[in-house]
Amino acid sequence: MSSNGIHLNNVGVRLGDTDVLQDLSLDLDARTVAVIGENGSGKSTFARLIGGLIARTSGELSILGIDPASRAAELRRRIAIVFSNPDAQIIMPTVAEDVAFSLRADRLRPAELEERVAAAMERFGITELAERPSHDLSGGQKQMLALCGAFVRSPELVIADEPTAYLDARNARRVADHLFEDNGHRLVLVTHDLGLAARCEQAVLFAGGRMVAVGEPDAIIARYEAVLRC
Ligand SMILES: Nc1ncnc2c1ncn2[C@@H]1O[C@H](COP(=O)(O)OP(=O)(O)OP(=O)(O)O)[C@@H](O)[C@H]1O
Prior knowledge:
Layout: E1 6-15, E2 18-28, E3 32-37, H1 43-50, E4 58-63, H2 72-78, E5 79-82, H3 95-101, H4 110-123, H5 139-151, E6 157-161, H6 169-180, E7 186-190, H7 194-198, E8 202-207, E9 210-215, H8 217-229
This protein binds adenosine-5'-triphosphate.
């Protein structure tokens, strides 16, 4: 398996009594990958699997050359995960403290930490919110904070699971633009927004816990739309 990208060979995931993902063999080498499919098809489980949050039951898996089963801590340092609900990711009392918390493992000098946090808040347009209690922010502001916390670590891979689900059109566009902006990271985007999926370079279609198609997004989306019309 190559040391880059996302590679699965015959991977299965069983949760409780359910085979949630089955027979997954995939090589995802594009910089941006959309994961689409109906409710319950296994997309979030796939996102959690490649993010190292759940373990495979069978098969082989390599994320950026790392097997999450043996090097989970290293994988966590090199990737970031963004969910629909930013409350799941916001930990510290104020916005600036929360962004700084993402860098705790880097053990930076205070001046450097402050500089990195300030630059990231500027980039995500949340500088004026720096001292605000993080849990008082609006949903759109919270998602921007969650993105800021994800990107401040310069992750090599960002896994975003329905990151725009609760946002209005303007905030959804802002969040998407940050995710797609090429900062040298790879993006895996789980989404029901087929417009966003079309912006990716590669798409994967899930159904019933299996990968049913992978390829160029327009073709994969057309196939999915045909299923939705049935
Ligand atoms: N911990 C678990 N134990 C048992 N079954 C689970 C568990 N987690 C998820 N499942 C089941 O696995 C299937 C896939 O769920 P998953 O959340 O991955 O789907 P999804 O494609 O992301 O759906 P949605 O679009 O609705 O978010 C569902 O049938 C779900 O009920």
